[in-house]
Design a protein that fits this description.
Chain lengths: 307, 395
């Protein structure tokens, strides 16, 4: 926002309240009420506004208080945001960033525990990334703001408290590149967002048992970084996908299809995929925990895959 | 304190419900009688003769263009068309009152605004034919015009999505303190969409310099306004949002012109949205996919087409002031028809955009997966050319 006066933020309670997860804390004081705009409760309204503002020269960042609420803005996101650059013959660009917390939290209830990345994945014209660490959150946010394309930045409700030492100076992560978290040779584990941390936890146990997993945080959900993913599969010949999406129509489903299309010859085993079940997330804590892939499941899957 | 969250409340022990209907309907502003006579003859001094003539010429152009394009669709020369018959005064009257830098977010029945700004008949035809000169590169259906140069955002079919977008543009203009406003058009049906409510409310809260122009033409495809809302039309909704509003005779080009001119001044100088409800009638069918005689009487259509034509009304005004005559009329219409025929022929003879246009502009730079899909598509079309249209170049 300092670098470019056209960058602005719109959303519910983003101003003086600082955002429901304090992501925009302090910005209204610094940049004013107009550039950090508190909106009435109308997701399709402020998303539509962001589209119109972007087409006429601004670079807005829309905050969905919870990604699930952006379902109300789906019309604007799909029918306009993703389309207008194309249907206008390239005359109008829509450099918006649509971001917000999603994923399963701690007893937030079904409506506040959605994984919208699977719903948006199909929309042509959108780009989508998921951040998972303080380092990549900063880098991806900057890259998304600077991109000329509309970018959906998926954050996770339970990752806001992560602490990490990151460089003070400017850096930008590549929106289309996956992150090689841990090199290995036995198996390729593909994951993103909070599940990266569950995979890392499982990895500790796996390494102790003598396995050597290659862990890749895919980061870019649309398009997939098939270059990085492919290189890994060519090395390990086995794939496990760990996601928080539902089994049906999730990121994992789409990723499996892409891997089959491109790297079938390199696979020694069917692709395994651990996902959440196709149920609304229950409120009860014990039930909720059972709907999210846990580290022991990941360990068991690797044992099954690798023998 | 008689204060509640910033508003003064006046308490009363008399139980009083606000009636659902006011005793007086919102008054409708008009300057010309239905026969083209100035209701206030002295106001002739405020009128610019050249401007009035130019407005009339453009209204006739719009009418002729619509007639010819509609027929072209019926003959199978273009795939689809939407006419603006009966709403020429709203289109041209409002366009003439705006500045070239005001940003327009239309629904799809406002090509006259683009026409006023300089979009040529050839450009309209190119878009309808989706040929290689179409600014949209053949990607949208006919009448979905857009021109960055003329500050007219590309038409998107979903109803009322343009309303909050216009508020967003106005937000940008307010931040930059530009001497310009955003303008959005929509029909009576559009006011039922959530986006209308959202846009109006937000514009008021924000103090956004935006004009909301509603073409209340009586019909939303087959839904008459009596089934669209129960309020006294649309202008009355303004106050509910804290938006200043006016109802105007949409078939009176002069009234539309002055109402929009004044509204624009208020929007830009006072940073406020204004709602304008222009009453009119949709003489044509909803589109070429509609036959409105199925749900409304042919007599009703004919009445509005012949007795309440906004183009004829302005003509009567011009002629009674000797600013226009029959000879001007014949010359203009003849010239337009000739132009249109040549424009259609021209558009028809041009090549269609090449196959690569299918994959470009989805993103700023074509990504790998789309490059692969493009190669696959080119290979298939190249291998089985007889199964694909012959007039689409492979490149």
């Amino acid at each position: 926002m300092e670098r470019d006066p056209r960058v602005c933020v719109l959303g519910e309670d983003v101003g003086h309240y600082g955002g429901s997860y304090k992501v925009t804390k302090g910005l209204a004081e610094k940049f004013g009420d107009l550039r950090v705009l508190d909106t009435p409760i109308a997701e399709n309204s402020f998303t539509g506004m962001a589209v119109g503002a972007a087409m006429t020269g601004l670079r807005p960042i829309v905050e969905g208080m919870n990604m699930g609420f952006l379902l109300l803005a789906y019309n604007q996101i799909s029918n306009n945001c993703g389309m207008l650059h194309y249907t206008s013959g390239g005359q109008f660009t829509i450099p918006v960033v649509i971001r917000g917390p999603g994923g399963v939290g701690r007893q937030l209830g079904a409506e506040h525990s959605q994984r919208l990345e699977s719903y948006f994945q199909s929309v042509p014209g959108l780009q989508m990334v998921a951040c998972s660490t303080p380092y990549n959150a900063k880098g991806l946010m900057k890259a998304a703001i600077r991109s000329e394309n509309p970018v959906i930045l998926c954050e996770h409700v339970l990752l806001y408290n992560l602490k990490e030492r990151i460089p003070d100076e400017e850096y930008v992560c590549c929106l289309e590149r996956a992150e090689l978290v841990r090199p290995g040779k036995d198996v390729t584990i593909l994951t993103y967002s909070r599940m990266r941390h569950h995979v890392l936890q499982a990895a500790k146990s796996l390494i102790n048992k003598g396995y050597d997993p290659e862990i890749i945080d895919i980061i870019s959900l649309k398009p997939f970084d098939l270059h990085t993913i492919g290189n890994s599969i060519k090395k390990t010949h086995k794939v496990l996908i760990v996601e928080e999406c539902m089994r049906t129509g999730g990121i994992g489903a789409s990723l499996r299809a892409s891997i089959m299309d491109n790297f079938w010859d390199y696979l020694d085993a069917p692709i395994m995929c651990l996902s959440s079940q196709d149920v609304p997330t229950p409120y009860a804590g014990t039930l909720e925990e059972a709907t999210v892939v846990q580290p022991p499941q990941i360990v068991k899957a690797i044992k099954q895959l690798c023998g | 304190m008689n204060d509640f969250m910033g508003r003064k409340v006046s308490y009363s022990s008399q139980m009083c419900f606000i009636p659902e209907e006011s005793t007086n309907s919102v008054p409708c502003y008009r300057l010309l009688s239905t026969h083209g006579d100035l209701l206030d003859p002295s106001s002739i001094n405020e009128l610019d003769k050249e401007l009035c003539i130019e407005m009339y010429r453009k209204m006739v152009t719009l009418q002729v263009m619509d007639t010819i394009f509609y027929d072209a669709q019926r003959q199978g020369r273009i795939s689809f068309y939407v006419t603006t018959i009966g709403e020429e005064a709203i289109n041209i009257g409002s366009a003439a009152a705006l500045n070239a830098t005001d940003v327009v977010f239309s629904q799809y029945r406002e090509p006259g605004v683009l026409m006023w700004r300089g979009f040529t008949l050839q450009q309209f035809a190119n878009q309808c034919y989706g040929n290689e000169y179409d600014l949209g590169k053949g990607r949208q259906m006919p009448v979905h015009y857009g021109s960055n140069e003329l500050n007219y955002l590309t038409v998107s079919s979903p109803i009322a999505t343009q309303v909050p977008q216009a508020v967003g543009a106005a937000y940008g203009l307010k931040m930059d303190k530009k001497d310009a406003c955003a303008v959005t058009y929509f029909g009576d049906g559009g006011t039922s969409e959530g986006d209308f409510h959202a846009g109006m409310n937000f514009a008021a809260v924000l103090g956004a310099p935006v004009l909301f122009i509603c073409r209340n033409n009586g019909w939303a495809i087959s839904t008459p306004t009596s089934e669209q809302f129960r309020s006294d039309g649309v202008a009355i909704k303004g106050q509910a949002y804290g938006v200043r509003s006016i109802r105007v005779d949409g078939n009176d080009a002069l009234a539309v012109y002055f109402a929009v001119k004044n509204a624009r001044k208020m929007a830009v100088e006072e940073f406020r949205p204004i709602l304008i409800e222009a009453l009119t009638y949709r003489v044509g069918h909803h589109s070429t996919s509609d036959d409105s005689s199925k749900y409304r009487s042919v007599d009703e259509i004919e009445y509005w087409r012949t007795r309440r034509d906004p183009v004829a009304r302005l003509r009567m005004f011009l002629q009674s002031n000797r600013w226009w005559d029959d000879e001007n009329e014949d010359l203009l219409r003849q010239d337009l028809r000739t132009q249109m025929m040549s424009v259609l022929h021209n558009a028809e003879s041009k090549k269609k955009p090449g196959l690569s246009n299918l994959f470009e502009d989805v993103y700023d730079v074509i990504p790998q997966n789309l490059k692969e899909q493009e190669q696959e598509t080119q290979a298939i079309v190249g291998k089985y050319p007889k199964d694909y249209p012959s007039d689409v170049p492979l490149d």
